[in-house]
Automatic annotation (TrEMBL):
EC number(s) recorded for this UniProt protein: 6.2.1.1
Entry annotated with the keyword rRNA-binding: no
The AMP-binding enzyme C-terminal domain, residue ranges: 470-548
Membrane found in the keyword field: no
Gene Ontology terms, MF aspect: ligase activity
SUPFAM superfamilies: Acetyl-CoA synthetase-like (SSF56801)
NCBIfam families named in the record: PRK04319.1 (NF003313)
Pfam families hit by this protein: AMP-binding, AMP-binding_C
Enzyme class: ligase
All residue ranges annotated as the AMP-dependent synthetase/ligase domain in the record: 65-420
Protein name, per record: acetate--CoA ligase
Gene3D superfamilies named in the record: 3.30.300.30, N-terminal domain of ligase-like
Length: 572
């Protein structure tokens, strides 16, 4: 299908772009009462010609399909906002979800935003420890979850979470207590009418936890104004056109699944497909076919798995509606970009962003020639650069093809506003007007950006950020573990796998039984997405003289690479 791209010419569009002008695509709350994400995504459409249009199409595990119009979704989210009022939630309170991709997750998100409370989604394969860390650091007041997830992973934490006022269970009809209540019952009793209160564009809206190299997860806080970026990137990168059927495969437990799996498509008034199931190549191809998907946003790990199947999907499935395939989350191999040509008849368009940026910042736009392996060019309205950064110095590198830190000029609307309870760390991530992303990259002479690597020890596994410290802390709780260090080991399929080096306490055996025991322990505590996939027992860990584990050195040794500067090494 040849539809003219919304952004037809990058250079001229960028030179005349302004965020102020983009605001005309949003409505704002009635009577100039501010800007609220949920109003932009749902209520304004429900009050106009899109009223009966499908907002969400939920594909359940058994493949049955449930459609929800913009109008129905307005009523559901109104009810949930009223439920929050009923249980005493007010502006700024944090509402957590711990759910699979079921309708409750989606109406919880928008109902929370309507109430001007802050929505924080948790990945449903987390184990109890990551859940505890996030709810306690985020001062969670409410958690929405299922009975099964609650029993397996949350009940055991309740005593340690005294601030958590209420748990709403999605699949029970009876309240267990004042604290553990039935969501369906409360929804039934609640009114389906709700007026979104005045919302300042700077009011907090979303809290996303992301991993740090040191310390526990960082809570990046975003405000309602971020919706301007969700809107603009939907229009110019995902190239939404009014009749589009769109599918984002990311889970809302990660930022892509929220910004682009919940908000951006609805703000742009398109139909959003949600699949409850995990990756399954045949299922995915048949969803693309049956649902006549036009725009598909997925991730490198999934694309590599599809490539392995050795079929040409466009020959076996009717994919003629597909206009755009995009990828984010990890580097997209050049072979994958060109495989897209063969598989779908179009290159796969890579783009770059991160939790802190709230929305896509660098992209291969549909109208632009693609350079396989490159992340593309900055979003209009976003200034990106490569810089030399040290404790004392900051210099923008203007020479092309020279590696350095990827930095962004402060001021785009979806920029995170703080790390919750960690202002100092927030300020440290800026040098003057520039935000230091933590990634290393290069820019070529034509302005395309190329990813080089992380500047820190953070692990990207199947597109998910894992902080080594969080894993090490959990391992240390095992009775046999004296010390632990965790690295990302390159893996062809999932990008990096989590590998742990462990020093055992005296008298514990370094054998396979021990490995299995520690692996089982870690999976239970952290969940399978975060727990180490490989364990090696070692006599000692390389450390600096100040006692910091040199993960970089462990990684170099593991990969047989040069060890680099070891002058601070205390012991080998
Ligand atoms: P997250 O905050 O979990 O979304 O992870 C963001 C990080 O993922 C970035 O800082 C990069 O390290 C990595 N990342 C995201 N998109 C890309 C991409 N297109 N190419 C390379 N790395 C990426």
């Amino acid at each position: 299908m040849s539809l003219t791209p919304n952004l037809a010419d990058y250079a001229s569009f960028t030179s005349s772009f302004s965020w102020e002008k983009e605001k005309s695509g949003l409505s704002g709350l009635p009577n100039g009462q501010g800007l609220n994400i949920a109003h932009e995504a749902i209520d304004r459409h429900a009050a106009g010609p899109l009223k009966e249009k499908v907002s969400f199409r939920f594909i359940q595990q058994d493949r049955s399909v449930m459609d929800c119009s913009y109008h129905d979704f307005m009523e559901l989210t109104n009810r949930f906002a009223n439920v929050l009022g009923e249980i005493g939630i007010t502006k700024g309170d944090r509402v957590f979800s711990f759910l699979g991709r079921i309708p409750e997750l989606y109406f919880t998100a928008f109902g929370t935003l309507k109430k001007v409370a802050v929505f924080c989604p948790l990945f449903n394969v987390f184990g109890p420890e990551p859940i505890f860390q996030r709810i306690s650091r985020g001062d969670g007041k409410v958690l929405v979850t299922t009975k099964d997830l609650f029993e397996k992973k949350v009940r055991q934490l309740l005593e340690r979470l005294p601030e958590l006022k209420c748990v709403l269970l999605t699949d029970t009809d009876k309240d267990e207590s004042e604290r553990i209540r039935s969501l369906p019952r409360l929804m039934e009793q609640a009114s389906d009418e709700f007026t979104v209160p005045p919302t300042d564009p700077e009011d907090p809206a979303l809290l996303h936890f992301t991993s740090g190299t040191t310390g526990l997860p960082k809570g990046a806080l975003h405000v309602h104004q971020a919706v301007l970026v969700h809107y603009a990137t939907g229009k110019y990168v995902l190239d939404f056109h009014p009749d589009d059927i769109y599918w984002c495969t990311a889970d809302p437990g990660w930022v892509t699944g929220t910004s682009y799996g919940i908000i951006s498509p609805l703000v742009n008034g398109v139909t959003n497909i949600v699949d409850e199931e995990e990756f399954d190549a045949t299922r995915w191809y048949s969803i693309l076919e049956e649902q006549k998907v036009n725009v598909w946003y997925t991730a490198p790990t999934a694309i590599r798995r599809l490539m392995r199947m050795n079929i040409i999907p466009k020959e076996q499935y009717k994919l003629e509606n597909l206009r755009l395939v995009l990828s984010v989350g990890e580097p997209l191999n050049p072979e994958a970009v060109t495989w897209g040509e063969k598989a779908f008849g179009m290159p796969i368009l890579d783009n770059w962003w991160q939790t802190e940026t709230g929305g896509i910042m660098i992209a291969n736009f549909r109208s632009m020639p693609v350079r396989p392996g490159s992340m593309g060019k900055p979003l209009p309205g976003v200034e990106a650069a490569i810089a030399e950064v040290t404790e004392e110095d900051f210099n923008i590198i203007t020479e092309p093809d020279k590696g350095g830190h990827l930095v962004l000029k402060r001021g785009w609307p979806s920029m995170f506003r703080t790390y919750l309870h960690d202002e100092e760390r927030y300020h440290k991530s800026f040098k003057g007007d520039w935000y230091i992303t933590g990634d290393l990259a290069k820019r070529d002479a034509d302005g395309y950006f190329w990813f080089v690597g992380r500047a820190d020890d953070i692990i990207k596994t199947s597109g998910h950020m894992v902080g080594p410290f969080e894993v090490e802390s959990a391992l240390m709780a095992h009775p046999a573990v004296a010390e632990a260090a965790v690295i990302g080991k390159p893996d062809q399929m999932i990008g990096e796998l989590v590998k742990a080096f462990i020093v055992l306490k005296p008298h514990y055996n370094a054998d396979d039984q021990q490995k299995q025991d520690i692996t089982g322990f870690a999976r239970k505590k952290l969940g399978p997405a975060v727990a180490p996939k490989e364990i090696s027992f070692v006599e000692s860990l390389p450390k600096t003289r100040s006692g910091k584990i040199l993960r970089r050195l462990l990684k170099a040794r593991e990969l047989g690479l040069p060890e680099g500067d070891t002058s601070t090494l205390e012991q080998a």
